[in-house]
## 1
Amino acid sequence: MDIFSEIDPIRSFIKEKKADGKTIGFVPTMGSLHEGHLSLMKLAKEKADEVIVSIYVNPEQFGPNEDFEEYPRELESDLKKCEELGISAIFTPTDEIMYGYSQYLRIEIDELNRYIDGGSRPGFFEGILLVVNKLFNIIEPDYAVFGQKDIQQFIILQQMVTEFNHGVELVMGPIIRANDGLALSSRNAYLNEEERQKAPSLYRSLQYIEKQVVGGVDQPKLLLEHQKSELEAKGLEIDYLNIFARKTLTPVETLTKNEQYIIAGAIWVGETRLIDNILIEF
Ligand code: AMP
């Protein structure tokens, strides 16, 4: 497995592979890899001949009061996991290489980041678009795999690929969970034992809402209020818990047939913010 931190050498590496007729799959990550990340790499391997993984904690997607400094960094064990999976190359640039100039352009998002995580984390998706746009230009992959765990990210990136004519096909991998339902996340490492026990409540709430909606509840307001109170009673603080239209990423009051919806929530478990979602179509 080759490890690159600079742009020109990884470009040459990929150029050679493409000259040999190989297709390139790409999985961007912030490292501290868990089974969720590994599942995306396996998907990428099914799609493409050579898989490149980037490991880069992108400062541009963290707000001033967020956890950029504390974010777990475990490069050595990450590299081992990638090597075991048969990843072709790792791109792990420094901030200097990614953003080594005093000013740069940003991509503005019109509507798609008004709610869900975009509503709570100003600048978050602009930071993601900036880094993924750069990474796509460096790697020029045929396929790029992202997780449903960050479904708003996937939908906004799909829009970027379409609008900016990136020649890449995006693939969405399912959410990988612990046995008790908690979605795997690098941030789960922040949870103490008591918090870890409470954390799966979010997914249980989403599942309950899904069951009610599939069972015929088409005006979910009261249902959502009730689930929020239940979570709060467990000592969890709610950032949002709502049902959004998949197309527009806006909250819906009345569900209609033949539409796709996202039941999504973000909660604070102590100092840790966790997100999760369920995609439904009915
Ligand atoms: P991150 O390192 O958190 O930026 O995540 C890198 C990629 O892994 C993103 O596409 C995430 O959506 C995806 N991901 C994170 N957690 C999971 C999970 N539990 N299951 C599947 N994919 C995940």
## 2
Amino acid sequence: MLTRRFLGALAGATALSLALAVPAMAEPIVIKFSHVVAPDTPKGKGAAKFEELAELYTNGAVDVEVYPNSQLYKDKEELEALQLGAVQMLAPSLAKFGPLGVQDFEVFDLPYIFPSYDALHKVTEGEVGKMLMAKLEPKGITGLAFWDNGFKIMSANSPLLVPDDFLGLKMRIQSSKVLEAEMNALGAVPQVMAFSEVYQALQTGVVDGTENPPSNMYTQKMNEVQKYATVSNHGYLGYAVIVNKQFWDGLPADVREGLEKAMAEATVYANGIAKEENDKALEAMKAAGTTEFHEMTEEERAAWMEALAPVHEEMAGRIGAETIAAVKAATAE
Ligand code: LMR
């Protein structure tokens, strides 16, 4: 029979040997993932999925902290913060890489360059996508994935049926010279503005209108301050998920592998929900009834395409004629 004292000693010894067998828990590596949209958008949901999978596949060695809605940084600041290492991961829209000096990304902003998500994926999932991501490396940035949002609609407080309807309207755009050229081609006055400021600018009349995929328009409640919208699908808005290169290269190889696996799966997820999220947002805004949505006629679409066609030629020097040609060749496949 074991005495109480012996049992106590045994328990103590077991606890000690267990403590010795389990290495001291290291502090997790923190990845701050900052973005500017709402959590219930394709990007917000993609980021949440990455957080879940990254922690799973690294067995808790990594702690992903997602900061949505420009909580940490606005558009321009977040890119600076990434380069300085104040945050580790972002997913800026492809229209926001110009100020970094990587104007090639503005190819995604060319009006009507992608007839569908399928055509776009031939670029983002192929050689052209890799070539574009490689251009980030000299900036101290590693590109991990392309995430979809969707095709943009135009909104304002007056109907936007034909190009002349844009004359003199102040239209908020992202920081892309191609979008500036697009609005100029329509006769509008483009105004670059951070995403977090758009709702208030629309509400107070600082700008008259804007363009965004339905999911962004709805989750920022822009439909409450825009009387009209045209489902023009005239351009694409998507993201590059990027990390600070020095941080990424410095990770232990097994951790990086776990994160790569998490990113690959989060990308499939994010790109799988993007269209549906946008379709649902458009339906929700129609049901809300604060904005009148116009579906374009063939003639109207032809008139928009004609007005916007010169932007391709005009911007070839900035984007790079080779990049535009590579994108057009990939989408024509
Ligand atoms: C915008 O500024 O309109 C968008 O880029 C926001 C976003 O990240 O989708």
